[in-house]
Every structure is written in C-alpha cells, then in structure tokens.
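Hello, quick one for you while I still have it in my head. A protein chain has come my way and I'm curious about its shape. I'm sending you its amino acid sequence along with the backbone structure tokens. I'd be grateful if you could look everything over and explain what you see. Here's the protein in full, and shout if anything looks odd to you:
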Amino acid sequence: MEVALTPLDFLERARRLFAHRAGIVQWHGGERMTWTYAEFAGRAHRLGRLLIDEHGVQPGDRVAWLCGNTHELLEAYYGVLLAGAVLLPLNIRNVAAEHRFVLSDAGAVALFRHPDQPDPQAPCPTIVLDADYEAALARRPAELLTPDVDERAAAELFYTSGSTGNPKGVLLTHRGLYLHAVHSALTLGITGHDVVLHTIPLFHVNGWGTPHYLTVLGGVHVMLPRFDSAEVLRLVEAERVTRLYLVPAMVTALLNDPSLAHRDLSSLVQISIGGAPVAPSVVSEVERRFGCECICGYGMTEASPQLTKALDKPGDPRDVRRRSTTGLPIVGVDLRVLSDDGDEVPWDGSTPGEVCVRSNHVMAGYWNRPAETTAALAGGVLHTEDIATVDPDGYLTIVDRKKDLIISGGENISSVEVEKVLADHPAVLDVAVVGRPDDRWGEVPRAFIVLRAGHAGTSAADLIDHVHAHLARFKAPKDIVFVAALPRSGTGKVLKNELRNNHLAP
C-alpha cells in the first residue's frame, strides 16, 4: 500500500487522538486564550471551506498571509492546504513595496491581513482578520474537507532573499514538509509532552517546522505575535515551556533582560540557536543561566529548512565546543562538503568546501525560475553556496558564504537589493554593501558610497533615510563609509573582500 504523504495527516491525527487537549495558547491584553485540537482542526476546516466557497480559491492557487505568530496563521498552515491551495506567508518586517512584489510575483489570489499589520495595498483581494472574518468563518459548515492530495504538489511558498536582488519563491511540497517534520522530530526527540513557544516567526519556513511536528505529536503551541524578551521569559514560566528556538539576537536580548534572574525556567529542556554562528562562550552562558541544554543548528529555506543540529553524539562526553558548531546532519539529510572538483573534503577541521545536500525535504524548485532551479539542484544535490569545514567526528562548521548575503539577527539581507536602492539616490555615483560584524545582530549592513560631483553635502543619515523609505528598516546600512572610489578587479567587479578586510572596524 502507498499513501500520499501530506502534513494534513498531522492535524487529522491530532483531531482524532487529542481532541480535548489544549493545543494552542495565546495571550492577548492579559487574557489567556486556548483552543483544543478539536477546535483548532474545526477552524482550519472552516477556513478551507471559506476559501473555496466565498473566495473561489482553486487547487494550486497561492493564498498569502500577513500576520505575526498568532493562532490564525497557525490555522492557515492547514486550512489553506485543505482548500487545495498553497500557503504564502509574508515577512511582517518588510515594507509595502516588498509585499507587493512578492504578491505579484507569486500571483496570489488573496491576502489575509491581521489588523495590526499595515495595509500594503495588495494587487489582490485583501481580507482583514477581524470580527467580520470570524463571523464568516463561523458560518461555514463543520464537516471535514477531504482533498485529493498529490504529495509532490506545492504546499507552501516562501520567499527568500538572495544575491540577485529580488527575493525568490521557494516551493515546498506536501511530501517534503511531511518528511521534514518526521526527520526533525526524530532527531530532536520531540514528544507530545513538549510545550514550544513560537519565538521564530512562522513566516520563516513555518518557524523551523514546529506547526507540523508539534501538532502530529499533540504538543502545545504557545503563540507569540512579536518577540519581546520579557514576555518570552514570562511565558516560559507561566506555560512551562520546554523548548525555545532562537536566533543570536534573541539570545542576546534574553541574557540581558533584567527579569531573567527572577523567572522560574526549570521547565526548559533545550534551547536551539540558528540563523548565525555563536561562540562556545555564549552556549555555555545560555546553559548556565537557563539550566538546560543549548545546541546550535543550520538550515535554509530551500531545505524546509533544517539540515543540521549540534547534538552530542550518543556515548560521547558532553562537549560545549561541539554543541557550538554548525552540527551533524539531521535524520534524512545526506550532507557532504565538496571541493570545487566535486570531491568530498577530508574531515580535518580545516579544508573548506561547499555544503551540498541530498534530502527528500529539499525544495521542488524556485517559483517561475527554471534556470536558477537547475543551477541550485545541479547534479541531483542542493548547492547551498555555504562554505564549511568538517572535523574528524563529522561536525560541520560554516566558515564563509559564496554569496554576498548578509545574515542579521537571523534575517537574510541581499546586498544587491540594498545597493540598488542606494544607487537610485541622486547623490550616489557608486555603491557597495557588505556585512560587518556586530555584537548584537551577528552582522549588519555597511555601505561604501562614492558621491556624485556637487553632492558633498549629502550625509549618511540622508542615505539611510532613503533606504528606510523603500526597504524594511533592518535592511538599511547601520553606517556608511564615503570613499573616492571602490576597489575593482580587472573585469570591473567590486572587490568586496577588500572592503571587508580593510574597513570593518565597528
């Protein structure tokens, strides 16, 4: 027998087996709200019927959501798929023009917007998640939807920044998401007793897979619309949270929060850090102050996203240095670090190569970008363009990136995208953007600017304000260096390594 693999089976299992368990918790205005798995499933099925009956959604249509980590977005992870459609979560940190690009590029048929998110003036019908939405949902019949699922069809579409400027849509299939959930839960030892606080935004590849693997096991989702360090610590204590998933900027905020010393965090089992490298000293401090295991990890949108976790090997002594590396491949991931000739590099901890991956949860491809899909999946592997070394025990450490992608607080920033906006300023003759080290965010953008003649009075603040008007604030340069000329190769390419090496004092 062969049964199609789909994350919709996860919600159905939870509905049947854990109907009365409070699967979702969300605080609003001091009030604690809960939804059982029966209620969660009921709302998801009603959403599916709403999409079909009132909005004419057809199989394969892209349905976008502009929403923080609320119960409505978690419900959409199943309700949109129950309508046969593809979920397109939008990054709430982006500005309206960026939202419109994604919506147009994806051909979204509808946008569901939370009331606390600004209206991006979408090129498709917009539905506000307000009292009218709730009334429309309540009018839908409670009968279960049973869509005919093709496991290789797209289920989710996430846009990721790259080195080419405009973001690319990454297509993730029902099969890939199902297997990613199984692989992740098995690697991490997730159980139905786990309580996970959603600190990682669900528009970041479903918050690292939690909507799927936590649901199928009957664990508890604690929703957090926006990250706030004091609220995170309060919720860990109040809800007896067992696992936290963080980026380094969140770790820094929590460690520096004055309420940390006064909270009961004894429920925590594990904290996982991803998005950028962290030092062993940070991992040690997290373990000491939170009283639980801390590990690092690595992934990317194109892989659904988890690829590695820095867990101690069974039978080996605990080793904080190992837990601070990029880690070991998770279950279901065949990861090799390859030389330019395609040979696997020696496990010596020093020879670099490109991280290449084979896995059932690697993307189907980029939306409407066949040439880039072919390049990324050449030879039957995902070419990550990340450069790493492997130590004698197989632990991976990312050491560089082929692309000039800046990772700031776990967010991808395309240097080319920022350069394009700066180049549109009338005072800018030439521009290059690189990442510079930052204690809080890991990296932040720094711009090198050559001004046009007659514009010597243009200030750094003028140029940063110009970027703020066109891109999300976190993408704007944190400082600007005015130079007479940019260093270039013989073919005219800007030598960004030279800029990094010579001009990166914070």
Q: What stands out?
A: The longest helix spans residues 37-55. The mean pLDDT is 93.
